[in-house]
């Protein structure tokens, strides 16, 4: 009988810390989660990781992979900066986890591990040229070209959310304007939704939002109920998504594009518009790629971190 | 003594056909050129290729590589379309050259072979993450990531000239507007130069252009003579180049960027502006890459086509 090792993946988010053990076929064997101890700081969060690893770890666990939502040095296993979490500056995270667990530990960018998860066990399976994009608070990207994950110098490739696409003075999380993320992210959709609610207080969208500021989720729900205000917002969102996807297509030429993140839950409502807008703008020779929703959903990064660990051995 | 094979590269342009034999160290052993027989059509040009190959070929010539300025099918060795040359639709070019010369023949995109030439024997030597961009009539690109040329699905990756960057109604060769090429190519610079000459008929730039419409070359020459009109044009060109280079950096994260094409001859005049504009806009963690001029110049595609042949064996 072949010995089947297991692998631990860690998804470190701004609010949730999630840890899972997966087998070589990408199945989750066990999983645990905890709210990130933000008040406790770096020491406390590393302690949380240690405790959750102890719970999911098995005798055959071989290695730990961590998806880092920020800058890191893969060679040194060093977290350089996590914008969403205070204090994570020059933290030797891999060494710390290795010392506490005895398990080899590797770091990778959070978008890249999510792409890896979808590529190996999700909606990108078997595709040699593949793009993964999360459309949520921001826009993150990671690319597989010729059956290899595109890392680039210092592992920094894939930041297509911060490519300039427009002259609009749309503020972006990076502090600049005109980025794709600034006009096509969930944050941009929610901003447009709040303005639409102000203009159309009797719309179904306004009713669903109620007293709270309208969200991207409200837009999707209202659109499914036929609200014309919400449908217009999704048409505009589809146009901006298509503009950026054309840029992605010309730069990387993926055969398939997989979309994750909250906004991708409205993909079925936007897909025809996206495809038509891309078709009009793509260069001769280029075709509209397959466009699919994430199959692993919120688990893409968790599973992908473990896949990265497995493939780093 | 080790037998050293030689390799033939063909650079098929809209006006010039160039053929060279190189050795394994990238040295040109022999080279020939002829004006493309546009009137004679496809048959005539294939005959020209055959004749020039016969002149540069050596007993040890192993394989022929052709850089295609258009769409092609590498597996079938089929040219699908060359926008700059009429009649090149579904032409089995590789088979034709093989039948006429007895030499195995491979096709690759012209920007990709130029990048390959610079990567192996030019300004990109030894760089694992490397971007090559030609800034001339249009903007072409090709990328090496993790020591591999980025081809993408159907070999179509790298068309960063046709990524949308602005809302300006700047007409692009692709028939759309707002592409990087539409605002930063040599064509865009020449268009701006002609408008500047109309506004400033007493400028040094106007004097250099004389009766003819001003060109990008005129701008560079006038700028070197201190003409303020030309210097302003180059500052604007630098700003658009920087905007696109930031997009390239965020998407591919090259360690070095090599610029070829006519506009790159003014790189020394623009480099400080480009670097400063990139520095202001790059994400934390990203640094301004090395930016260098092409070392092989006009021969990048010719040498690179032979390198592609060599590496395809």
Automatic annotation (TrEMBL), chains A, B:
Gene3D superfamilies: 3.30.420.40. One of its GO terms (molecular function) is glucokinase activity. Keywords: Kinase, Transferase. SUPFAM superfamilies: Actin-like ATPase domain (SSF53067). Signal peptide: none annotated. The keyword Transmembrane helix does not apply. The keyword Kinase applies. It is an enzyme of class 2 (transferase). This is Glucokinase.
